[in-house]
Amino acid sequence: MEGKYGIINDIAQSRRHNNRLVYSCLAVIVIVFGMATYYVMRADQRAKNNAYLLHGGQRLPMAPIRDVKENLQILCEGHLYNFHELFFSLEPNLKLIKRDIEGKALHMVDWSGNRLYARLVEKKYFHDVAMRDYRYFVELDSIHIDYGTYPFPFTFYGKQAIEKGKSTTYRNLITRGQLKKSGVTPNNLNGIKIIDFQVVDNSDLERM
């Protein structure tokens, strides 16, 4: 009988030991889950208080900004500048032009940007850039955005510097359109889309 009681006691002790182990593991899991939740919420809050700019396909953080309006302004202006740089800054390389415009810029604009691109392709505009060995650079003068109306109307004021061998031609680059919020995607990390885009002025200025 004593042997049986000893076995029973061993089993009971083993159960108590297993129960303590299970409860300890559960407690650790709860603590770890609580800490993870806390730090995720803090990280999310910090992310909401930061502005980002899209550059070269990467989302670059800036200094924390508490003002929602200022945050929106930086996002919109950064989106516009990056789009114009991708669409209008051109190297004499058709593959590079296609990658920047089709792979990046056209994801930042609605059908109006695709229509402009198709029209330029039809006119062999990009082919001429590559064949003539021209290089195009965008210079920003100012961006005006009306945040009192939604979608936000904008006007982009800038210039195109076109290197043609030893000479440089400058063109006006004035565009208009509107900005609206859109879903965040791998190709549009700012969650903003340009709509009703049009080039207002792209005339020559001076030659140096």
What does this structure look like?
The protein is 47% helix and 32% strand. The chain starts with a helix and ends with a strand. The protein is an alpha+beta fold. It is built from five helices and seven strands, in the order H-E-E-H-H-H-H-E-E-E-E-E. The relative contact order is 0.11. The strands form two sheets. Strands 3, 4, 5, 6 and 7 form a five-stranded antiparallel beta sheet that branches. A two-stranded antiparallel ribbon has the order 1-2. The radius of gyration is 29 Å and the shape is elongated.
- Provide the structure class: alpha+beta
Strand tally: 7
Q: Give Rg in angstroms.
A: 29 Å
Strand content: 25-35%
Global outline: elongated
Task: Tally the helices.
Answer: 5
Distance between the termini: 110 Å
Protein name: Conjugative transposon protein TraK
Transmembrane segments: 21-41
Keywords: Membrane, Transmembrane, Transmembrane helix
Organism: Maribacter cobaltidurans
Question: Keywords, please?
Answer:
47% helix, five-stranded antiparallel β-sheet, 208 residues, two-stranded antiparallel sheet, 32% strand, alpha+beta
How would you summarize what this structure contains?
The protein is 47% helix and 32% strand. The chain is of the alpha+beta class.
